[in-house]
Amino acid sequence: RRHLIGLQDMPRERMEGLLHRAQHFAEGHDARDALAGVAVCTLFFEPSTRTRLSFQLAAQRLGADVLGFDASTSSTSKGETALDTLRTIEAMGVRGFIVRHKEDGAVAELAAHAAEGTSLLNAGDGRSAHPTQGLLDMLTLRQAKGADFSKLKVLIVGDVKHSRVARSDLHALRVLGAGEIRVCGPASLLPDDDTLRGCVVSHDFDAALEGADALMMLRLQRERMEDGLVNSLEDYHRDYGLTRSRVLRAAPGAVVMHPGPMNRGVEITDEVADGPESWVLRQVANGVAVRMAVLEDLLRR
Ligand code: CP
């Protein structure tokens, strides 16, 4: 339990314990001395707004010393490898590394070479995993719909193929026993491996919305996409964009979620993103609480 790489092997009891602790932090409690004297570094080789800043804030609220690392202004630009970068910062006495990288498996690979006593937390690797996003999405769902997921119909929509968020959400929803997991998107943006095992898969968004309790919209990840996977943004919006009239097809009280950053006017309209059903900013707030829980769990002596 030194690192947090993904959610697929996390026992339900541990996940529920982290969510319980995160809810405690979300209610305004703190633990100012939990990581006093512990140094952590946000080691980001890919851009981020929410994940990096909320991890930094979470670590500060636990009393840690926090270093920020930005690949674009570091010696990475002179050719230093990720592993040499990790070892260099480890040598300064840093014990916790929050790592984002564009390659699948990069964080696990770094963790395998980390010094004894160092913990790595995956802040998103390639298309593989974004475990703290998965946890904050589960915390948001619990706040909206209660802790019993067994009757919940959750619909994940859009670019699942390129989405580490979707993969972590799917693992977490399975661990927590979600009643029905629906996945909807164009065939070109749905994975054809076992990512979607046990899910109800559809290409018809309007039909998939019927009776859904939570609508988890995904960003169209054009930076990870080869040409031709979507015809045009207008076509994508027509077929898979969440509009007000589509929200009304879902179950009464359905919540709308999006991990951000949003492509407004593509996968979601302004009216929905900023509307009464939107829990998008609550997800951001929950990110701080979840990351406090995870950092405390892994780094507290
Ligand atoms: N959801 C998410 O990972 O956002 P950032 O890329 O801004 O961290």
Automatic annotation (TrEMBL):
L-aspartate binds at K78, R164, R219. It comes from the Bacteria. Residues 151-296 form the Aspartate/ornithine carbamoyltransferase Asp/Orn-binding domain. It holds the Pfam family OTCace. Carbamoyl phosphate binds at R50, T51, R100, H130, Q133, G260, P261. Keywords: Pyrimidine biosynthesis, Transferase. InterPro entries: Asp/Orn_carbamoyltranf_P-bd, Asp/Orn_carbamoylTrfase, Asp/Orn_carbamoylTrfase_sf, Asp_carbamoyltransf, Asp_carbamoyltransf_Asp/Orn-bd. GO terms for molecular function: amino acid binding; aspartate carbamoyltransferase activity. It is an enzyme of class 2 (transferase). It catalyses: carbamoyl phosphate + L-aspartate = N-carbamoyl-L-aspartate + phosphate + H(+). PROSITE patterns: CARBAMOYLTRANSFERASE. Its EC number is 2.1.3.2. One of its GO terms (biological process) is 'de novo' UMP biosynthetic process. The keyword Transit peptide does not apply. Residues 2-143 form the Aspartate/ornithine carbamoyltransferase carbamoyl-P binding domain. Pathway: Pyrimidine metabolism; UMP biosynthesis via de novo pathway; (S)-dihydroorotate from bicarbonate: step 2/3. Catalyzes the condensation of carbamoyl phosphate and aspartate to form carbamoyl aspartate and inorganic phosphate, the committed step in the de novo pyrimidine nucleotide biosynthesis pathway. Belongs to the aspartate/ornithine carbamoyltransferase superfamily. ATCase family. Heterododecamer (2C3:3R2) of six catalytic PyrB chains organized as two trimers (C3), and six regulatory PyrI chains organized as three dimers (R2). HAMAP family: Asp_carb_tr. This is Aspartate carbamoyltransferase. It comes from Marilutibacter penaei. The gene is pyrB.
